[in-house]
Amino acid sequence: LRERERERERERERERERERERERKRENERMGEREIEGERERERERERERERERERERKSYSRCLCVCLNGVSQCGVCRSRH
Question: What's the whole-model pTM score?
Answer without folding.
Answer: 0.45
